[in-house]
Amino acid sequence: MANDSATGPVTELRVLRQDDWDPWYDTLIRAFGGVPESTEERELWNALTEADRSLGAWDGDSCVGTAGAFSFRLSVPGGAVLPVAGVTMVGVSATHRRRGVLTAMMRRQLDDIRSWGEPLAALTASEPAIYGRFGYAAATFGLSAEIDTGRVRLSVPSGTDDVRLRYAAPADVLDGCEAVHARLVPGRPGMLARQPGWERVGLLDPESERDGASPLQCVVAERDGEVTGYARFRVKPGWDVSGHNGTVVLTELAGLDPRTRAALWRFLFGIDLTTTLSVRGRPVDDDWQYLVSDLRRCRPRLRDSLFVRLVDVGAALEARTYQAPVDVVFEVTDDFCPWNAGRWRLTGDAKGASCTRTEDAPELALSVRELGAAYLGGVSLASLAAAGRVRELRGGALSEAAVAFGSAVAPWLPHGF
Ligand SMILES: CC(=O)SCCNC(=O)CCNC(=O)[C@H](O)C(C)(C)COP(=O)(O)OP(=O)(O)OC[C@H]1O[C@@H](n2cnc3c(N)ncnc32)[C@H](O)[C@@H]1OP(=O)(O)O
């Protein structure tokens, strides 16, 4: 790790001791601006921190760098749910910035993740420019919109009227909502199977998050007494000279079938005294887009969401399936994790895959970042080739791999971490 005589050397990078959690977390909070969290939030993040998978950089007695790695399970194309290190809580004190503290933490962390046998690391970035150098690439995207519900009409499928909706306190219906989430995970790449304690994240409702809106509200959809979907949202009332202009701010919506989802969207579109429905980080193929009368007035926009890093190229490519047959030799470069570099033959289809070292002639040349971007099926290898980031060395290999890597359902990360 780099030293600097003005503040003294950074002496140690070590696994977090539970006793050091407070100064460690304070360092992280300060790196994000220093605004304290509510007691409820702080306690929750304390409970969720996995100290033995977290790192602290120390300059004498002062913590100057933080990084963690949650033990998550991530859905991938084909429906498998893989162990993945959820890289998180990364911060470096401004007194020690740009001296290699982050680089040292990323080096140690990726070595650790490899030794734990986890084939993938993933994160959401505060700034997209940070993590490419460590082999991460944006693999999922989130759709946001400000829907003008005063003007935009929603056409719902038949049977929507049969869905029964009712208000409930979010905590009172948690089990039913969690069961819905669990059923959705294998069907969409990029989702995280719930780990113990993480169900509480969706119920967090600090005043600081509300920006003048109500506490979290919840509506559940039910059929035969079973929860088939739910929406969590806040309502921000508003008035101007022409009357009401309140906003519904959606935090979460999930449904097991089209009628349930349509009923929830129709409910959110129609809440009295509101004229805008604000949604953030939804799947790029979210169904409401195909039900509205006027997409322009929904003001859709995209943002990067989950960044993926293949820690073990062979194991990662073998663990997902491919929507069309593929047999391609990849020439992979990986400057930060050189154990991945070299030639790999991927053979697979919708039933399974194998990915092994080979001496055969390369057919597609790319870096580990392009594999990370394409891994969940949300970025096409053909698009990356068109951008000059993938080179085709055998005619036909690009379209074969690009089709195979795709996903019929857009990959999506429902919540940050
Ligand atoms: C998964 C998560 O938790 S995301 C949260 C990340 N944390 C934050 O955004 C909190 C505020 N920022 C910080 O704490 C720090 O600035 C960090 C963690 C982003 C960077 O830490 P540093 O120790 O300064 O990074 P380090 O010195 O190792 O930089 C390594 C390289 O990344 C580059 N880099 C670092 N931060 C950034 C950035 N924000 N934008 C672009 N490049 C960056 C450096 O210039 C350097 O490049 P070089 O190798 O070409 O010289």
TrEMBL record:
Gene3D superfamilies: 3.40.630.30, SCP2 sterol-binding domain. HAMAP family: Eis. Keywords: Acyltransferase, Transferase. Signal peptide: none annotated. Residues 11-157 form the N-acetyltransferase domain. Pfam families: Acetyltransf_17, Acetyltransf_9, SCP2_2. PROSITE patterns: GNAT (PS51186). Homohexamer; trimer of dimers. The active site is at Y131 (proton donor), F417 (proton acceptor). One of its GO terms (biological process) is aminoglycoside antibiotic catabolic process. This is GNAT family N-acetyltransferase. GO terms for molecular function: aminoglycoside N-acetyltransferase activity. It comes from Streptomyces cadmiisoli. Belongs to the acetyltransferase Eis family. Acetyl-CoA binds at V90, G91, V92, R98, R99, G100, V101, L102, T103, S126, E127. The keyword Kinase does not apply. InterPro entries: Acetyltransf_17, Acetyltransferase_Eis, Acyl_CoA_acyltransferase, Eis_dom, GNAT_dom, NAcTrfase_Eis, SCP2_sterol-bd_dom_sf. CDD domains: NAT_SF.
